[in-house]
Amino acid sequence: MKISVRYFASLREALGPGEDVHIEAAAPETVGELLAWLATQSTLHDATLKQGQAIRAASGQVMCTFDEPLRDGDEIAFFPPVTGG
Amino acid sequence: MQTAICHVLVQEADFDLTAEVNALRAASPRTGAVVSFVGVVREWRELGGADTARLVLEHYPGMTERCIRDMVAEAMYRFDLLGAKVIHRVGALALGEQIVMVAVSAAHRHSAFQGGEFLMDWLKTQAPFWKKEVSAQGAQWVEASEHDDVALARWGFDVEHGVNRPLPT
């Protein structure tokens, strides 16, 4: 499974603009499982994605919940709650 | 039937509110009310240092535009608007600069006031923008306000997890 992951704001500052991930065995089935998988990839990922701050997600550039099913080729973004306006 | 004006722009450049309002006013002879809102970079609490203070706005290109277009379409329908224009700036903005404008037109003021407020409430909690405050003392990301979620919930949206889910009616 190939997923294009994107980060914004404080997550981007810590982890970069994003990464293309290839997951073969025991691939995550939801956006929330993907987030948990990413957190295992490095201590920096772990600290950034698990620091208890509220993280929001978008699938295919539409806001989604962590229950959103993951499909091969998806663009998934993680970011803090938005503060525009 | 006349085509309704429905414009959304995400840009670094500043905008001219008067020109935008005039365009909305002129777009339809049925226009009886135009309401506009401008958000401005203001001095803030913790960092101070107004001399060097600025705001840096980041966004999610593509998603931002689509998200705002969807919300404008919703507002046009809900409040029977004749026109709507939303401009949101990104990049570095100095104290006092304009950040965002929402202008809407309708036959009557009630629709226009409501439509404009609805658009701003939605934009604050749903559009993928992030503000960073920068001053001589340092920089920090602005934290989202729960008040903004409450403001959107008034319009019948459940905003838990930042997702637009119309409440069952």
The helix tally of chain B amounts to: 4
Strand content of chain A: 25-35%
Span from first to last CA of chain A? Answer: 36 Å
Shape of chain B: globular
Q: Percent of residues of chain B in beta strands?
A: 25-35%
Average of pLDDT of chain B: 86
User: Gyration radius of chain A, to the nearest Å?
Assistant: 12 Å
What this model shows, in words?
The complex is a heterodimer of chains A (85) and B (169). With 85 residues, chain A is α+β, with helices and mostly antiparallel strands. Helices cover 26% and strands 27% of the residues of chain A. Chain A has helices at 10-15, 31-39, 43-49, and strands at 2-7, 18-22, 56-59, 62-64, 75-79. Chain A has a 5-stranded mixed beta sheet with strand order 2-1-5-3-4. In chain A, helix 2 packs across helix 3 (43-49). The radius of gyration of chain A is 12 Å and the shape is globular. Chain B is of the alpha+beta class and 169 residues long. Chain B is built from 4 helices and 10 strands. Chain B has helices at residues 17-27, 63-79, 109-126, 146-153; strands at 5-11, 33-40, 54-59, 83-89, 91-94, 98-106, 129-135, 138-141, 157-158, 165-166. The longest helix of chain B is centred in the last third of the chain and has 18 residues, at 109-126. The radius of gyration of chain B is 17 Å and the shape is globular. The model of chain B is unreliable at 161-169 (pLDDT under 50). The chains are: A alpha+beta (85), B alpha+beta (169). The A-B interface holds A 6, 8-10, 12, 54, 56, 58, 61-66, 77, 79-85 and B 39, 57-60, 62-63, 66-67, 88, 99-100, 120, 123-132, 141-144, 161-164.
